[in-house]
Write a structure and sequence with these properties.
membrane; receptor; 12-stranded antiparallel β-sheet; signal; about 425 residues; mainly beta; 6 helices; single chain
């Protein structure tokens, strides 16, 4: 049996967790062959120290299955309810132990210990998860052990752990392409180099295709850099940069039962909808292995996310018109009768629509300590940490009323200042 260790982590707030084990635990530990890895996980070195329950999806599973979406990744994990969203599952809907899976708002979703929520306190929704090719494992924590990772840990915590940089002394790389129906194309490439002093890697992933509906094309690109440097025998600096560009010709306007019966592969207004998201992440980490029993991990992070959805129809729309078309509430075409114009009318596609631009900035710094020691003949493991976290959110909503305003949300905001709905949140 092999236990892959040297996991570092983050704590959302000051926490203290202690567990005691009998003397026989030390004997069992001596039989394990420990393999050193440099990853950023949330589970401690000793998995038997985790209170509650946990699951690990390892690299072998990801490599064998090569899952595209979160449903394929995590459908075998007990206690998880993963709901599909769109043909490729780019949006993340994970419910744990009966919690509402809507945008994973009741679970803490992380990558290398840093939140994937747009804003964990102000707007805890997820529109992104890293591609499978970038991952070495996925950790799922349920029960008491999730308290370390808040704030959204009512259901549990999920951490996507990215692959470590190469340290073999040789250039390493891979190139993968895949093709499927609906004109699906996947391109993934990585290259890196490392030795005993440190290493780095670059990665690129593109998912592109026509989507499940007609005229619902998507193009999602993910750029990654990861590097680390051993500044002493016991101290390591790490840096990770991520940029994601997400473009989709669809939002959250799904099919009604009437529309599905008419044509399950066509949506009456999706050709007029657009989704865009740009996401940038900077993560800097310092690991100090004070001795064999005490490790300090500190990291600073910054995220900058912008998203806008242009929607031609409202969710849960009412009855269809006499032609069987869904009716848009957002049309404002005087020549066609204003609101109530068919969403599939050739002229209706040239005006109206709802923009929902939102800007999110988060930043923070944290330190976590992992301490193992013996006391009164028992072995103890203590985890403690502190985090400072800050968020700035600017949410807006505006109804576009012309062709130009549909194509440029900034113009719609400028032309209709009295109609803008907005909120600014700082935590």
């Amino acid at each position: 049996m092999q236990l892959k260790t040297k996991l570092s982590s983050s704590a959302m707030f000051s926490s203290l967790l202690m567990a005691s084990f009998g003397a026989h635990a030390e004997e069992e530990r001596d039989t394990l062959e420990v393999k050193k890895m440099t990853v950023t996980g949330i589970l401690p070195d000793r998995l038997d120290a985790v209170p509650g329950s946990f699951s690990i999806i390892d690299e072998d599973y990801l490599e064998e299955r090569r899952p595209i979406s979160n449903i394929e990744r995590m459908r075998t994990v007990p206690g998880l309810h993963v709901v599909p969203d769109g043909s490729m599952g780019f949006d993340t809907n994970i419910g744990i132990r009966g919690q509402n899976p809507r945008r994973s708002a009741k679970a803490m979703i992380m990558e290398d210990g840093i939140h994937l929520q747009l804003a964990p306190y102000a707007d805890p929704v997820v529109h992104y998860t890293p591609p499978s090719s970038a991952l070495s494992r996925i950790e799922i924590v349920k029960g008491a052990g999730q308290i370390l990772y808040g704030p959204q840990t009512l259901g549990g915590a999920v951490n996507f752990v990215t692959k470590p940089v190469p340290r073999s002394g040789e250039v390493e790389g891979s190139l993968t392409s895949a093709f499927g129906n609906q004109n699906y194309r996947l391109l993934d490439g990585t290259v890196g180099y490392g030795n005993d002093l440190g290493g780095f890697s670059f990665g690129f992933t593109q998912n592109k295709g026509d989507g499940v509906y007609d005229n619902s094309e998507f193009d999602v690109k993910d750029y990654r850099f990861k590097g680390e440097l051993d500044i002493t025998e016991r101290q390591t600096l790490g840096l990770k940069l991520v940029h994601t560009r997400d473009r989709r010709n669809s939002t959250e306007a799904y099919l009604t039962p009437f529309e599905y019966d008419r044509d399950p592969y066509s949506h009456p207004s999706i050709q007029n909808d657009d989704w865009e998201q740009d996401r940038d992440v900077v993560q800097l980490q310092h690991t100090f292995r004070v001795n064999d029993n005490f490790k300090l991990t500190s990291q600073a992070y910054y995220t900058d996310t912008f998203r806008n959805g242009l929607r031609s129809t409202e969710e849960n729309e009412g009855d269809l018109d006499t032609n069987g078309n869904i009716v848009s509430l957002f049309r404002n075409c005087p020549g066609q009768g204003g609101e109530g114009v068919s969403a599939t009318d050739v002229d209706a596609s040239l005006c109206g629509g709802r923009h929902a631009p939102r800007q999110y900035y988060t930043r923070g710094i944290e330190t976590r300590g992992d301490l193992s020691y013996g006391l009164f003949g028992l072995e103890h493991e203590t985890i403690f940490g502190v985090r400072y976290h800050e968020e700035n959110v600017h949410r807006q909503e505006i109804l576009a009323q012309s062709v130009a305003e549909r194509e440029n949300y900034k113009l719609a905001l400028a032309n209709n200042p009295d109609d803008v709905e907005e909120a600014k949140i700082k935590t």
